[in-house]
Amino acid sequence: MLSKEVIAGGLSTAIVGKKLFLFESIDSTNSCARALGDAGTPEGAVVVAEHQTSGRGRLGRAWVAEPGTSLLFSVLLRPPITVETAGLLTLYASAAIARAIERSIGLNVQCKWPNDLLLQGKKFCGILIENSFQQSGLTYTVIGAGINVNQPELPPEIADRATSLSREAGRALDRDKILQAVLSELDIMYQAVRRSEFDTAVSEWTQRCSMFGKTITVQEHDSTVSGVASRLHQDGGLVITTEQGERIIYAGDVTVVA
Ligand code: BTN
Q1: 128 C-alpha vs ligand 1 centroid, how far in Å?
Q2: CA 210 to ligand 1 center in whole angstroms
Q3: Is the CB of residue 126 below 6 angstroms from any atom belonging to ligand 1?
Q4: Which of 77, 112, 162, 181 has the greatest number of C-beta atoms within 10 Å?
Q5: What pLDDT shows up at residue 135?
Q6: Could you tell me the CA-to-CA distances from 228 to 213, 221, 231 in Å, in that order?
Q7: Mean pLDDT across the stretch 153-158?
Q8: Does the Cβ of 129 fall within 6 Å of ligand 1?
């Protein structure tokens, strides 16, 4: 079981994790963090759960994880940034988590647009960012992440495209320590994000992404776009060169074709 005392005891962050909530079971850590955001809770609060009964993924999907095997958590932040730069938060979160996994476990992490993290081409971490805007701008963001840590096997229906840290490292891992590492890197990179500086996040994300120059298809809600992944747009969107010209995509599932 995760231990709040152990996690908090070994954390020396400035903002992220200053307040920590740990639940044995909850509907969704993102929903809980959003409720905290709506209630005016200061930034840095982190909600962690051993189990979620209604874990949410991107594009309205469910996120299901066996109790006690994963890290399921959400971070409430209030960066004073504009609506135009909010899309870059996903690159910040991905880069910080990737860094933490590389530094604490020594595995090479790949970033897949928009916010999946992979090991050897298989997903081990999904990120769901939910923003609250008012006329004045962003009032808060919730960065939710599900990290597969100690699953010895993944369910057969996703085993060809999903993995866990323990499978790739070849040993069982300490979830308290990994969460500490992740919260620390989120905290370090957040110093720049608060100043609306995303250069480090964007360049660290780009270094770990091998999709550029390749032909991809993007499954959007009700259509598919094909083309060459050209570059990141300055707002975090993905620029694709199609037969009709350039298009910027903001959501969807990417498949690399060639
Ligand atoms: C995805 O890849 O679709 C994103 C998955 C995000 C799942 C995490 S688990 C913790 C947090 N709480 C949720 O309900 N979702 C996120």
Answers
A1: 5
A2: 23
A3: yes
A4: 77
A5: 85
A6: 6, 20, 9
A7: 94
A8: no
221 pLDDT higher than 90: no
The phi-psi region of residue 74 (left if phi > 0; otherwise alpha if psi is between -120 and 50; otherwise beta) is beta
Whether the Cβ atoms of residue 122 and residue 153 lie closer than 8 Å to each other: no
55 Cα: distance to centroid of ligand 1 (angstroms) = 6
Between CA 238 and CA 249 the distance in angstroms is 5
CA-65 nearest atom, ligand 1:
9
Q: How confident is the model at residue 42 (pLDDT cuts 50, 70, 90)?
A: very high
Place of tokens 């992740």: 182
The fraction of the chain above a pLDDT of 70, given in percent, is 100
- Residue 228: DSSP 8-state: E
* Cα–Cα distance for residue pair 222/12, rounded to 1 Å: 45
